[in-house]
C-alpha cells in the first residue's frame, strides 16, 4: 500500500468531538504520496530547465524527466514503439489525441463517458449507455460494422472508452472492446484516469492503442498527466503547441519550420518537471507494491459502503451494469427527498466527511443513472448525486461514519 505524505487534518464537529476529516473524494483528486513528495525534494537542489542547457542542473533535471517518462511508460504497459507524451491531465491527453487524429477520423464513444472522453472529438458517433459489459461489446461491434458498411474501409476510426467509470466505478471490458474495434480496423483510446489508481493499466495486454491518465488521481500533484500509445498519428500531426522544444529547425524568415518527432513534438515550452518526476516516483512505487492486497482492501471498503448505503430506506445507489459487476472504489448515490448539494455540505460541516456532489463531469450518464434509480425504486430522485470514493488512506471508520450520517439524514 502506498503511504500518503499527509493525513487529513482533524476537524471539530458541532457536538465537540474532534475527528480526522474523512476524505471520501479520492476519485476527484487523491492526496499526495510520500514517494512523490520525496522525489520532488530530492530534485529541488537541481532545479533547472530540461533539454535546454549543458550545465549540471539542466543535465540532472533532464535525466530525471526522461527517466520518469520511461517509468511511467513501463507502468502503463507501453510497447517499445509507443510514445509517452506528458500533458497536464487526462483531459489534456484526450484533447491532444483529438488534435492528432488523421483528417476525417470518426470517433466512436459511449454516452456514459466522462466529458474528457465525450467531448473533444471533431467528428463523433455516440453510442447509448450500455446495461452490461457484454452489451457494450455487442453495441460497439454493431456500430463499427454499420459504419464500415456506410463509410468504407479507408476511414480512420477511433474508439474512446473509459476503463473504469468515475460515476459508478464500474470496470469496462477493455480487452474485449479492443478485440472488436481491431476487427473493424479501429484504434482504441482508453481513459484510465479512474482505473490506474486501483488496478494495473496494461496497454500491451489489452492490445489497446492509447491510454490517458492524470497524476493528481494517482497520488502525484496536480498538473501532470500522460498520453501514451502509437507513435505514427502523433508524429504525423501538427504540434499540439507550437514553440520552443517542438522544433528542430526554423528558417531565418520563420516561414519554414521542421518539427521534431517523438514526444517533444507535442511538449513545446518548459514542462512541469516536478509533476513528471513525482508521477514517475508514484508509478515506480505502485509497480513494486502489493497491488492485489490493496485491491482486496479497497474492494472490502467499497462493498461495505455500497451494501450499507443500499440498505438505508430512501437511498439509491447508482449503477449501470448488473449488481455484482466488477468495480473500483467509487460509489455514487442519491437520497430521495434530499438535495444532494445540501447533503454534501451537511456531511462536511456536521460530520467532517468530504464527498463529491453533482453530475461528475459526466452529465448525460449521471442524469441517466438518476432517472433509472428513480424508476427502479419508485422514489423521486434529486437532480444531482453524491459520490464517495476510497483510496490509500481510507479506513473502515471513514466508511461507517458516512453510512451513519446518511442514515440519519434519510
Ligand atoms: N476521465 C475520468 C474517468 C475522470 O474521472 C476524470 C476526472 N474526473 C477525467 C477523465 C479528467 O481528468 P482531469 O480532470 O485530471 O483532466
Automatic annotation (TrEMBL):
Residue intervals of the Aminotransferase class V domain: 23-402
Database matches in Pfam families: Aminotran_5
Entry GO MF terms: lyase activity
Gene3D superfamilies given in the database record: Aspartate Aminotransferase, domain 1, Type I PLP-dependent aspartate aminotransferase-like (Major domain)
Keyword annotations: Lyase, Pyridoxal phosphate
SUPFAM superfamilies named in the record: PLP-dependent transferases (SSF53383)
InterPro entries in alphabetical order: Aminotrans_V_dom, PyrdxlP-dep_Trfase, PyrdxlP-dep_Trfase_major, PyrdxlP-dep_Trfase_small
Cofactor(s) listed: pyridoxal 5'-phosphate
Keyword Heme: no
Keyword Acetylation attached: no
Protein name: Selenocysteine lyase/Cysteine desulfurase
Amino acid at each position: 500500500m502506498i503511504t500518503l505524505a499527509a493525513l487529513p487534518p482533524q476537524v471539530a464537529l458541532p457536538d465537540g468531538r474532534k475527528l480526522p476529516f474523512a476524505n471520501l473524494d479520492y476519485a476527484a483528486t487523491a492526496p499526495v504520496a510520500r514517494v512523490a513528495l520525496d522525489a520532488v525534494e530530492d530534485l529541488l537542489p537541481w532545479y533547472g530547465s530540461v533539454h535546454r542547457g549543458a550545465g549540471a542542473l539542466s543535465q540532472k533535471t533532464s535525466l530525471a524527466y526522461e527517466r520518469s517518462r520511461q517509468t511511467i511508460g513501463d507502468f502503463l504497459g507501453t510497447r517499445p514503439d509507443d510514445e509517452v507524451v506528458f500533458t497536464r491531465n487526462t483531459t489534456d491527453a484526450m484533447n491532444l489525441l483529438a488534435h492528432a487524429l488523421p483528417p476525417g477520423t470518426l470517433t466512436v464513444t459511449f454516452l456514459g463517458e466522462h466529458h474528457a472522453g465525450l467531448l473533444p472529438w471533431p467528428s463523433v458517433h455516440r453510442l447509448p449507455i450500455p446495461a452490461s459489459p457484454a452489451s457494450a461489446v455487442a453495441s460497439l461491434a454493431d456500430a463499427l460494422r454499420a459504419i464500415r458498411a456506410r463509410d468504407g474501409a479507408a476511414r480512420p476510426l477511433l474508439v474512446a472508452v473509459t476503463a473504469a467509470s468515475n460515476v459508478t466505478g464500474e470496470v469496462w471490458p477493455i480487452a474485449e472492446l479492443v478485440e472488436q474495434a481491431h476487427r473493424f480496423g479501429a484504434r482504441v483510446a482508453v481513459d484510465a484516469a479512474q482505473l490506474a489508481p486501483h488496478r494495473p493499466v496494461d496497454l500491451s495486454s489489452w492490445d489497446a492503442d492509447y491510454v490517458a491518465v492524470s497524476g493528481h488521481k494517482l497520488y502525484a500533484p496536480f498538473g501532470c498527466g500522460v498520453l501514451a500509445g502509437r507513435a505514427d498519428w502523433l508524429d504525423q500531426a501538427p504540434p499540439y503547441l507550437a514553440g520552443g522544444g517542438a522544433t528542430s529547425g526554423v528558417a531565418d524568415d520563420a516561414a519554414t519550420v521542421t518539427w521534431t518527432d517523438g514526444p517533444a513534438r507535442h511538449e513545446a515550452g518548459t514542462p512541469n518537471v516536478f509533476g513528471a518526476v513525482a508521477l514517475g516516483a508514484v508509478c515506480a512505487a505502485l509497480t513494486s507494491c502489493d497491488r492485489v492486497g490493496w485491491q482486496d482492501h479497497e474492494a472490502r471498503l467499497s462493498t461495505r459502503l455500497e451494501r450499507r448505503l443500499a440498505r438505508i430506506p430512501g437511498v439509491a445507489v447508482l449503477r449501470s451494469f448488473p449488481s455484482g459487476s466488477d468495480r473500483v472504489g467509487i460509489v455514487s448515490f442519491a437520497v430521495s427527498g434530499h438535495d444532494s448539494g445540501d447533503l454534501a455540505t451537511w456531511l462536511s460541516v456536521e460530520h467532517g466527511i468530504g464527498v463529491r456532489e453533482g453530475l461528475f463531469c459526466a452529465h448525460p450518464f449521471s442524469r441517466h443513472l438518476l432517472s433509472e434509480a428513480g424508476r427502479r425504486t419508485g422514489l423521486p430522485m434529486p437532480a444531482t448525486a453524491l459520490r464517495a470514493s476510497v483510496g490509500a488512506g481510507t479506513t473502515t471508520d471513514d466508511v461507517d461514519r458516512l453510512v451513519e450520517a446518511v442514515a440519519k439524514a434519510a
